[in-house]
């Protein structure tokens, strides 16, 4: 099965991304992968200060994860997670040496291999959490807090205002950057536990 969905002519997986959007538009939240500019912003703001692990939730076709690798993050310090089996298959086939978890991010605690536990330093999220009810958003926030206590997370979003009701989730919200160089234009938000 591995490799079945890899389009060698389109390493960023644009055709695959579009097909998965047609199948699950709300879950995908975007028609195309993040732009190189947005990926660079995520790398700059999500780069670990220590020698910890970067965890990407909702990795899609892996453009942000690949940007971390291109910037020099060793593959054994990167974990990507994706709910869509076709996208997870693409990630396994294209991100050499990177741990790919195929699951719902809300089940992160069950799926994160033991060798990564206690080592997650940065959590990056591209899941369209804005579309979910508060109770489901709380489950995502709790899952992240369980594997990376006190670390918070970065979330990119196309919303003009905070995509999460930070106060109700026990978080502070800070928009770190906005870029028009993405389809659609996007902001990077940092959420930290109060
Ligand atoms: C907007 S796309 C971002 C993809 C990629 N990170 C990028 O920047 O191009 C959102 C991704 O989150 C995934 N996703 C949605 N809900 C999820 C969940 N509950 N658990 C894990 N992944 C999820 C989707 O399948 C999709 O690949």
What is the strand and helix layout of this fold?
Elements: H1 14-23, H2 25-28, H3 36-46, E1 53-57, H4 63-70, E2 78-82, H5 85-94, E3 99-102, H6 108-111, E4 120-125, H7 134-147, E5 153-157, E6 171-179, E7 186-193
Helix pairs in contact: 3-4
The protein binds S-adenosylmethionine (SAM).
S-adenosylmethionine binds next to α2, α4 and β2.
Describe this structure in words.
This protein is an alpha/beta fold and 194 residues long. 31% of the residues lie in helices and 22% in strands. It has a 7-stranded mixed beta sheet. Strand 4, helix 7 and strand 5 form a beta-alpha-beta unit. Helix 3 packs across helix 4. It starts with 13 loop residues before the first helix and ends with a strand. The chain binds S-adenosylmethionine (SAM). The site of S-adenosylmethionine has 22 residues, from helix 2, helix 4 and strand 2.
End-to-end distance: 44 Å
- Which second-level CATH architecture applies? 3-Layer(aba) Sandwich
Fill in the CATH topology.
Rossmann fold
CATH evolutionary superfamily:
Vaccinia Virus protein VP39
The average pLDDT value, as a whole number, equals 94
Small ligands present: S-adenosylmethionine
User: Counting H and I runs of at least 4 residues, what is the number of helices?
Assistant: 7
CATH class: Alpha Beta
Strand share of the residues? Answer: 15-25%
Enumerate the strands of the largest sheet in spatial order, edge to edge or round the barrel. Answer: 3-2-1-4-5-7-6
């Amino acid at each position: 099965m591995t490799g079945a969905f890899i389009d060698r002519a389109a390493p960023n997986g644009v055709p695959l991304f579009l097909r998965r959007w047609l199948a699950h538009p709300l879950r995908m939240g975007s028609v195309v992968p993040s732009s190189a500019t947005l990926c660079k912003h995520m790398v700059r703001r999500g780069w670990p200060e220590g020698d910890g692990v970067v965890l990407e939730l909702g990795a899609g076709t892996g453009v942000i994860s690949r940007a971390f690798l291109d910037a020099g993050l060793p593959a054994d310090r990167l974990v990507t997670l994706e709910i869509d089996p076709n996208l997870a298959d693409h990630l396994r086939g294209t991100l050499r040496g990177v741990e790919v978890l195929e699951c719902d991010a809300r089940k992160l605690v069950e799926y994160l291999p033991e060798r990564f536990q206690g080592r997650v330093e940065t959590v990056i999220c591209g899941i369209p959490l804005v579309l979910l009810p508060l109770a489901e958003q709380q489950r995502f926030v709790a899952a992240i807090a369980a594997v990376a206590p006190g670390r918070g997370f970065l979330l990119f979003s196309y919303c003009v205002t905070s995509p999460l009701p930070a106060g109700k989730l026990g978080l502070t919200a800070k928009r770190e950057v906005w870029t028009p160089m993405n389809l659609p234009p996007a902001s990077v938000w940092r959420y930290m536990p109060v």
